[in-house]
Amino acid sequence: MPKFALGIEYDGSHYHGWQTQEAGVRSVQSEVELALSKVADSPVSVLCAGRTDKGVHAVGQVAHFSSDADRSLKSWLFGTNTNLPKDIAIHWIREVDEDFHARFSANARRYHYIIFNRPVRSALYSNRMTWHYYHLDAMKMHEAAQHLLGEHDFQSYRAAECQSQSSIREVKSVNVRR
To answer: Which helix (H) or strand (E) holds 143?
Structure first.
């Protein structure tokens, strides 16, 4: 059965994270699977590179699925987007080798955090960034963040049900700028 990888962008403001949850709880995965299933005309399950929490957004989330539905890549892309809510979009889709796995084939992840730093909060960007009233010294924050570079054990940050074989991760780059 052919396997496909896809790149997903979403605004997580109205979702309880990536992963499918109990009935009645909106998740990005549920919406993507529903849209793909409509295009395939049969159930489709999606696995992703990494789950996000409630309210978290993604610009380049990678996921994969398998389907024996005979559709062109263009049909998968545009058909899926037609069936997705406006706050989720598939940007690309391609056929991948049978051994590809979105989570286990990933070799890096990038996170981008924005702190809106001024005396008054933003009405337009309130669901896109955190807000901090007091002045922040970006140079000092950048200097302190450099201590995160290298390999570290993130065991204390793992969920109890985490399936990863190791809690050791390498932080390759940290940049704090105003």
So the answer is: helix 138-145
Q: What is the pLDDT of residues 58-115, one digit of tens each?
A: 999 999 999 999 999 999 999 999 999 999 999 999 999 999 999 988 888 888 889 9
What is the distance, to the nearest Å, from the Cα of residue 86 to the centroid of all Cα atoms in its chain?
Answer: 16
Residue type, 80: T
Catalytic annotation, pick one of 41, 53, 137, 153 = 53
Q: Which two three-digit tokens encode residue 161?
A: 């049900």
Spatial contact of 33 and 45, defined as CB atoms under 8 Å apart: yes
Beta-sheet pairing, 3-10 with 58-66: antiparallel
Amino acid in the structure at residue 117: N
How large is the angle between the packed helices 28-40 and 73-82, nearest 10 degrees? 130
Q: What is the pLDDT of residue 166?
A: 85
Note if 153 is an active site residue.
Answer: no
pLDDT tens, position by position, 12-23: 999 998 888 888
Task: Note whether 8 and 89 are within 8 A (CB).
Answer: yes
